[in-house]
Write a structure and sequence with these properties.
The structure holds two protein chains of two kinds. By secondary structure, chain A is α+β, with helices and mostly antiparallel strands. Chain A has 23 helices and 22 strands. A six-stranded mixed beta sheet of chain A has the order 14-18-19-17-16-15. Chain B has one domain (14-154): OB fold (Dihydrolipoamide Acetyltransferase, E2P) (Beta Barrel), CATH 2.40.50. Chain B contains four helices and ten strands, in the order αβββββαβββαββα. The chains are: A alpha+beta, B alpha+beta. The A-B interface holds A 344, 347, 587, 633-635, 674, 676, 678-686, 689, 691, 695-699, 727 and B 41-47, 51, 53-56, 59-63, 92, 151, 154-155.
Chain lengths: 728, 155
């Protein structure tokens, strides 16, 4: 049992650590908002609280030091300078290490631990204040129900419906009726705003009510009554003889949320400030309305009360819209089972469609309409299920910030990571399996890409190297890019190393792109001296394999003196994709729609020979090389004359175009991807398989590798060598 | 002790015999998951001669090997009369094309003879023993050798 609670704690820790990192990053960017500082403080405090409850002493002790320093920052006793921020970052990294150690067992780096404690200690002044530390039950943290009052209380409610409320068909009478169920209710109509008959506007709302309710129910019960008209009315609920209780409740809440009592003033003042976007990140959604109303209660004056009321409303709304949405933790297995079932459903659909097409019935229109509906539903379900697995890349990117920090510290370079597109959602598996390749690329970028500060200065660049980590959706795939502004790839050196290591013959003619791709050959490492960072004997081939296993690919482009770009292109989903069903030399195959730019039926006029065996297709005045899929897959001898069949114009990742010659196009449909991993190893030109409506298996082609395989024999050899190396 | 062990063995040694390129082979019945009639498979590009392709087995994609080509005999011209024996190797289903299934034979383990030394190294690896059945030689296939050496080549 403890195990499962502990698991929950570590899961929450991960979220809290993320929140902490996000907060620190915002502070580093110059965010002055006290709420950001509070958010970080709360995260650290919550970790400490949880760790205390589980007796994780190391974690508690370190978190306490960390928190103490942060508390001084919060109370403006400490100035946040560059040095302190860097220390806080290191402390946050270490805290995350400690959490990992506590979870997986193992020891954190004790020396590092001591150094950080000492460094933090420098900032802690002698009279260390005793922080209120309350081990809290994990999970119960966000539950305000224990505040429910048992004794009767009198609530004064002022209710002014806006005209929108009447537009939505709400009726005050029913609200009052619901209120009277809670206790003794008296209603007074306030018609003071009612203009003269002539001035009255149609549909405008002029009436207000003042209600007095004596009830033993809690305030939240009253709020629940107005739940459906929230935002459609001006509402204030105040109670008499309750202030004290409220204050207590507030204190309890604050304690629960890790706010020290000293914080209370702050918290009360909060609602009067305009809500800032940063509050989005705070894990404190629930108390906001309560605090806000407490503030309203304490305003004796009528006018400010109205103002407070409005902020209360606004605050309530922000809390509602921006607070963490309620979530459900589900075992990944269950989702995966669902995904498999949906895959079968889609296959089943195409089988049905096939059966109906085979039926000897003349009028199948009705059935086909229904079948179309079935297809759409299946697609909806599939998208819904995939959305469950989709997660923003933000946590991954935040972890990368740490990699860059550590890498820069280890190499004596200064580099800063700029992340763009953090909200891009990617399949959970992809995120997990991207961590290693990204780490590798980023370490390489710092180690090999970014120059030392003095070299940078000499080259007229800023001292701080910039690495941009971008995630974006691009037509059905996810593109993750690491761009550094370093020296760029040293192609001469790369070529020489490849020759030295016997990866390419000495007289090999390689263009820039091919040289860049040598980096991905197994056992290739450019570090002349083995640095403890990236030159660990694992080369970029690890990156290529990891990304390849996810059905994606890696590209490099580099400009000497300006930097390099590594882009990882991944399919959006791992289970289903849209494909074009084609036939190639009698075999049915599927080409991913995303790769196809255009399809066309060719005739002899459009085909031009180039040299002995090169053929080009002329498309509106431009010439594109033709690649016969059948011969490239070895299904037909290449001496076979080009059939005047159908051409699929595809664009490779580096922008080259190529016309894939196939015999015919049959259909365009969703196909379920069945991995060939473990079935038959790596098949050149084929990325996976799928099951068609007739139960037959069709290969899903990988246009990229077909094009590269046919366009250049040299590259093909390289590819093949790589594949062989991967295989062994 | 010995008696017990013997009794146990005698009870459990059932083999399914089948023909591949005119020769008789067999597999222990517990190794076989199912036997299916041959249906055209999906060809894998650039595949070696003994990999016929992949087949859909109730939603799973399984590879089909031509046992005949695997043993270095001539390639089977697969037809409707042939069968695919689905076996499970390391929990992964794999299909093996054979000419025809003959019968289920029950063998006393003591009757299994060691493979006599022959020149062909390949054959030696794939055959783990021979049985004499109705004056005919039946070869017991070493499934792991057949599949794992295959995997080494393709992966």
């Amino acid at each position: 049992m403890t195990g499962s609670i502990l698991d929950t704690f570590f899961e929450e820790c991960e979220e809290l650590l993320e929140a902490m990192d996000a907060g620190l990053a915002a502070i580093e960017e110059g965010d002055q908002d006290p709420e950001t500082v509070n958010a970080v403080f709360r995260a650290v405090h919550s970790i400490k609280g949880g760790a205390g409850a589980f007796g994780l002493d190391d974690l508690v002790a370190f978190a306490h030091n960390f928190e103490t320093v942060f508390d001084d920052v919060r109370s403006n006793k400490l100035e946040l300078d560059e040095k302190l921020i860097q220390l806080l970052f290191r402390a946050s990294d270490h805290l995350s290490d400690l959490v990992t150690c506590a979870r997986d067992g193992g020891e954190a780096d004790q020396a590092h631990h001591d150094v950080l404690i000492a460094a933090l200690g420098e900032y802690i002044d002698g009279e260390e204040e005793e922080l209120v530390f309350e081990p809290m039950g994990v999970g119960a943290t966000f539950d305000p129900t224990p505040l429910a009052e048992v004794q009767e209380a009198r609530y004064d409610i002022r209710f002014h419906p806006l005209k929108e409320m009447f537009d939505t068909g709400n009726e005050p009478y029913f609200l009052f009726q619901a209120l009277s169920d809670l206790g003794a209710l008296s209603v007074r109509l306030d018609d003071s705003e009612l203009p003269g008959f002539e001035a009255m506007e149609d549909g405008e709302s002029y009436l207000s009510w003042e209600l007095t309710l004596v009830t033993s129910e809690s305030r939240s019960a009253i709020e629940a009554v107005f739940e459906f008209v929230e935002g459609l009315c001006e509402l204030s609920i105040s109670s008499e003889g309750e202030e004290e209780d409220d204050a207590d409740a507030l204190a309890a809440l604050n304690a629960a949320f890790g706010l020290a009592p000293a914080e209370e003033e702050n918290a009360l003042a909060l609602p009067l400030e305009p809500p800032t976007p940063e509050t989005d990140e705070t894990p404190a959604p629930a108390p906001a309305p309560v605090e806000a109303e407490a503030a309203a209660d304490m305003e004796p004056d009528a006018e400010p009360e109205k103002a407070a009321e409005k902020t209360a409303e606004a605050k309530k709304e922000t809390a509602k819209s921006s607070g963490p949405k309620p979530t459900l933790r589900v075992e990944l297995d269950r989702v995966d089972r669902l995904i498999n079932a949906v895959g079968e459903l889609i296959i089943n659909h195409s089988m049905l469609a096939q059966q109906i097409a085979n039926l000897d019935v003349t009028d199948t229109r009705d059935v086909e309409t229904e079948l179309e509906g079935f297809k759409n539903l299946a697609r909806d379900i599939q998208e819904g299920v995939m959305a469950i697995r989709a997660q923003p890349v933000k946590p991954l990117f935040q972890r990368m910030a740490r990699i860059v920090r550590e890498a820069s510290a280890a190499t004596g370079k200064t580099a800063k990571l700029i992340t763009i597109g953090e909200t891009t959602e990617v399949d959970k598996t992809v995120i997990e399996r991207l961590a290693d390749p990204l780490t590798h690329i980023l370490r390489n970028a710092v180690d090999h890409g970014i120059e030392k500060p003095d070299v940078r200065a000499a080259a007229g660049k800023g001292k701080v190297g910039e690495i941009r980590l971008t995630a974006a959706h691009r037509s059905g795939s996810v593109c993750i890019e690491v761009k550094d502004d370093g020296a760029g790839l040293n192609r001469k050196k790369i070529r020489q190393i490849a020759i030295d290591k016997g990866l390419i013959p000495e007289n090999a003619e390689l263009n820039d792109g091919e040289i860049d791709n040598l980096l991905f050959l197994p056992g290739f490492s450019t570090a002349t001296e083995i640095s403890n960072l990236s030159g660990r004997g694992v080369g970029m081939d690890v990156v290529k394999n990891a990304v390849g296993a996810l059905g994606g690919r890696v590209n490099i482009s580099s400009t000497p003196g300006e930097g390099s770009v590594f882009s990882i292109i991944l399919p959006l989903t791992l289970a289903v994709m849209d494909g074009m069903v084609v036939s190639v030399a009698g075999h049915t195959m599927v080409v991913p729609i995303t790769a196809i730019v255009e399809t066309m039926r060719g005739n002899d006029d459009m085909i031009n020979n180039l040299g002995a065996d090169g053929t080009l297709l002329s498309i509106r005045g431009s010439f594109v090389p033709i690649c016969d899929v059948a011969s490239s897959l070895g299904l037909r001898s290449s001496s076979h004359s080009e059939p005047a069949g159908v051409y699929l114009l595809v664009e490779t990742e580096n922008g080259d175009r190529c016309a894939l010659a196939v015999d015919d196009i049959h259909d365009q449909r969703q196909v379920v991807i069945k991995s060939l991993d473990g079935v038959c190893g790596n098949v050149p030109g084929v990325s996976a398989a799928t099951i068609l409506g007739d139960g037959k298996i069709a290969m899903i082609l990988d246009p990229e590798s077909i094009v590269t395989a046919s366009s250049s024999a040299a590259v093909f050899d390289t590819e093949r060598r790589m594949n062989n190396a991967i295989a062994s | 002790m010995q008696l017990q062990a013997e009794a146990k063995h005698v009870e459990h040694s059932e083999f399914v015999s089948f023909t591949v390129a005119g020769q008789a082979f067999c597999l222990q019945i517990t190794q076989i998951r199912e036997i299916r009639r041959w249906q055209p498979v999906t060809v894998l590009p650039h595949a070696p001669a003994d990999v016929l392709g992949v087949m859909n087995l109730r939603g799973a994609v399984i590879p089909i090997y031509d046992l005949s080509a695997r043993f270095g005999l001539e390639q089977t011209a697969a037809s409707e009369r042939n069968v695919v024996i689905v076996v499970s190797v390391n929990d992964k289903p794999v299909g093996l094309l054979a000419e025809a299934v003959s019968e289920i034979i029950s063998i006393d383990p003591d009757d299994i003879q060691e493979t006599p030394q022959v020149d062909s190294r390949n054959t030696m690896d794939f055959i783990q023993g021979i049985i004499s059945q109705n004056d005919e030689m039946v070869r017991i296939i070493n499934l792991n050798a057949v599949i794992s050496s295959r995997e080494q080549v393709t992966q």
